[in-house]
Design a protein that fits this description.
The protein is mostly beta strands and 78 residues long. The protein has strands at 5-9, 11-12, 15-19, 26-27, 32-36, 42-44, 49-58, 65-73. 0% of the residues lie in helices and 53% in strands.
Length: 78
């Protein structure tokens, strides 16, 4: 069974990322969704779907709330 939503944190290893998307944007699997501030590292989407939120969510690795991109899966994997 596939997940309904994917949450992509915009923070990792002391690197903050900036979303390249806006709410209601359509995302294809593998598309760049964020870029690092310091290193220009890219984050890619693992699913296709619609961006439903860019907001603070609990980040499991640290327990802190960090900005995350929420993508609703459309199950097309385009």
């Amino acid at each position: 069974m596939f997940t309904k939503y994917v949450y992509i944190p915009l923070f990792d290893n002391n690197e903050k990322y900036v979303s390249t998307l806006q709410i209601n944007d359509y995302v294809q699997m593998g598309q760049v969704v964020a870029k690092g501030n310091k290193t220009n590292t890219l984050i890619h989407s693992s699913i296709s779907g619609i961006v439903t939120s860019i907001d603070k969510k609990m980040y499991i690795n640290s327990g802190l709330k960090v900005n995350c991109i929420e993508i609703k899966n459309d199950y097309n994997n385009n």
